[in-house]
Known about the structure:
This protein is α+β, with helices and mostly antiparallel strands and 204 residues long. It has one domain (3-7, 36-200).
Amino acid sequence: MSGRMLATCAACAFSLVFVWPTQAQQTFGESHIAVENPAELSKDEANAIYDKLKEMMASGYGLSQIALVDGYQSWTRYNSAPYLSATHGQRFVNNYANATGKTYGSLKAGEQLPAGTVLAKDSVTVKDDGKFYPGALFIMEKLNAGTNPDTADWRYMVINPDGSLAGDTTGDGPELVKYCHDCHIGMAEMDYIFYVPDDYRVAR
């Protein structure tokens, strides 16, 4: 995207087109719905769009009344800007972790995060036609040992932008988010977590 578009974004007079969630909301179930033709954004452009949406996103997810994710945007963010994630349907995502998961950014192979760790990954769809809107909130919660062996004691949950629950491996619709752990199995030696791409990592 052009430097002129960045300047426009910074002035809060977006040449990008925000689409209200009621018009463009995407819900999830059984797999990620991939975004066709995602935009290419610089870090500054991605941050500008996220800053425009994040309050609305937090309010929308909050309609779920799931206390686990209250105030997640006040947690430590481990990326310098939203980055494009192929494993989350070509959306721009952020990586947050609560205080219990403070070793998330320094975890080494063979180590595990403590029970009570919550990882939150919110997402934004930005298309190459300039339209952008909130995506789902992806949650991982580390449970006590032995709670759910089928998912290596991780709880996976996806909350849609309107606060509706797409699925929860320990609650409603576990089969709808089974694909989450199926993907994370590939990171078993890192306690089943993916981390931030090198270019977007923030030293903690």
